[in-house]
Amino acid sequence: MERVQFQQEQMLAELKDLVQKSLFNQSEVKQIVKKRTQFETALVRRIPKKGDFLRYAAYEMNLEQLRRKRVERLKLEKTAPSISDYALVRRQFQIFERALKKFKSDVGLWIQYIQVAKREGARSLVGRITARALQLHPRTPALYIIAASHELNHMSPSAARALLQRGLRLNADSIDMWREYVRMELSFVEGMKRRWTVLGIHEEGHPIVEAETTAAEDMATLTPEEIAAEKGGDEGERARQAIMDGAIVKSVILSAAKALPSINLFTALEVLIRSYPSQERLRTALLDHLYNVLKDTLQGDPHAVKMLATRKLRELTSQENSDDFVMAESEEFVDALQAANESFSLAVGAGSTNASGMADVYVEFVEQWCKLPTLDPNLRAYLVASLRKLARQPNAPPSLQAAYVQLTLPSKKAL
Predict the structure, then answer these.
(1) 167/102 Cα distance (integer angstroms)
(2) DSSP alpha helix (H) spans, 137-279
(3) Residues in domain U3 small nucleolar RNA-associated protein 6 N-terminal (predicted)?
(4) What's 106-142 look like in SS3?
(5) What span, in angstroms and rounded, lies between the C-alpha atoms of 92 and 62?
């Protein structure tokens, strides 16, 4: 109980200050002391539970929110900060520190602590927490992503890049980390563009204003394109143009494909690039590069064939809010559907080593569109006829014939 008494003594100054500021009355202070004593008693048991720490921290968070609301409502005059202005937040941090001494292996607890520190604007503390967490859990991608995001939000792209590169050396099979790395480089391109605009450096070759000297620690993580872009003359102009064209992002995509040749990786990167608010020219160039890398990396993979074949269809349907929207009157849509079907037909008819898997993916494609109520009947008939042609080929996978029969059953019943 000596630990409990010690904690009670530590809170006297802050509680006195709260009463002097008329933020809490004596009765409320007694309730606070009583509640804290209960929490502290639970923490000094022989085997404390993580839930006890979290409930204690949640209580202090609610107490701090109440204090802030009362400060705002009472419109107190601004004075020099006193102990009650930061004591409740500091106590939250202390509770998490005590919890982590008992539960160092709990990654979720580390993440909760980081989130609390970020919410309170404790930038330096967030950096220290993430560093400690990564020392204990170097193979947890989420911690690298959180740490890099924190650095990027505080205008430290070089530090963010260094963190992600370090994480990828240990977690090269993490799709989330590769996606965040590409996202960071996309953000960096937009940031560099704004910076060069302010400095008078333009893509079109306008007069160049010399940029400030890059810090030595930043130079260690800069790419060759970035270093060259900081220079003047033709070399700097070419490097800046390369960055604007996505040279760095393309390099990361290629590295990701070599480290993790997975269709799930390409799907995640495609969704990211399509949704990221970048210039249309850059987005198109990056998607073209992604598809070229996919073609070289996953040759003959059924899902890669599908992704490449249906690229234009995804571009058209993503322009609408409804997933089942079909531009029945659009020649562009008809051409895209026909091109996708022809690509599939060639892949299935080529007799690849994974003929069964290729056939299953094609069947899935045909059924997806044929079952769409808004699809033009002529287009449906075209897809069914294409499926029948492939199903009648020698050594055709059974799934083709089964799908054809299934799709033509309604018409036979009607007869």
Answers:
(1) 26
(2) 141-153, 157-170, 175-199, 216-219, 224-229, 233-244, 247-259, 263-275
(3) 9-91
(4) CHHHHHHHHHHHHHCCCHHHHHHHHHHHHHHCCCCHH
(5) 11
Residue whose C-alpha is closest to residue 60's, from 74, 45, 72, 43: 43
> What is the distance between the alpha carbons of residues 155 and 159, in angstroms, rounded to a whole number?
9
The amino acid at 299: Q
For 139, residues 6+ apart whose C-beta sits below 8 A from its C-beta are 170, 171
Helix (H, G, I), strand (E, B) or coil at 415: coil
pLDDT digits (tens, 9 = 90+) for 343-372: 888 888 766 667 788 889 989 999 988 888
| Structure tokens given for 399 | 């799934």
CA distance 369 to 367: 5
Token pair in block for residue 391 = 């199903």
d(CA 103, CA 364): 47
Radius of gyration from C-alpha coordinates of the chain? 30
pLDDT tens digits for 254-303? Answer: 999 999 999 999 999 999 999 998 888 899 999 999 999 999 999 888 99
- Encode 173-182: b = buried (16+ Cβ within 10 Å), e = exposed: ebbebbbbbb
Contact 139, 166 (CB under 8 A): no
Distances (CA, A) of 212 to 199, 218, 221, 231: 9, 13, 17, 10
- The pair of three-digit structure tokens given for residue 123, joined into one six-digit string: 């930038």
Say whether pLDDT at 53 is over 90. Answer: yes
Rounded distance between C-alpha atoms, residue 390 and residue 372, angstroms: 22
Distance CA 236, CA 244 (A): 12
288 vs 270: CA distance, rounded Å:
10
